[in-house]
Amino acid sequence: MSDLAHLDDLAHTCVSAVQRALGIELDFTQDTLPILDHYVSMAQGTKAEVIELLAPMAGAYFGEVVRRSVGAARWHAPGTEYNAYRLEFENAFLHFNPLGMVVESILKAPAEGWMAHLQMLPQHRETVQASLEALGGVRDEDYFRLTVRFEAIEQVYLVLSHLALTAGSDTPFFSHEVYDATLSTGVLPSDGKLH
Fold it and tell me: Which residue in 13, 26, 150, 194 could disulfide with 32, CB within 3.0 to 4.6 Å?
């Protein structure tokens, strides 16, 4: 089974699970994220085995909502190494692990090793931080909600795609190979090629 087929199966498993538990059908839109937040909140305080089942399916669903709604993005999904999954945006250097965000949502705390936080180039962090601060603060109890995370992803993507466009005359394209090279060295490839 391909990585994308596996992700599709996981996301649709989440749709079925929420339908059974809450009687509501998720439709892969941003409007369904409060329902997903409620469903995930029902798992708080559960055993690690439940989290291991819930995080992949809810994370695949959340990632698909982001991928379909925010901007051109693709999955990096190495089999069952769920902590290494990431959603990579093509027109702005931004990646994160949607499954890790679900783990943090369940735990209501940071989840070490899950790459749940938005990752970008170091030179963009200050601009992005200022943009998020301009939107106003987030209550502590809402910080790990997927609805709030989606809004932050959307804002960060807008800022980063604007920065990428103003840096050059062409629309940038960050390939999977660029992400791999940048993650291993900490900087974009020095040849200047984004493809």
Answer: 26
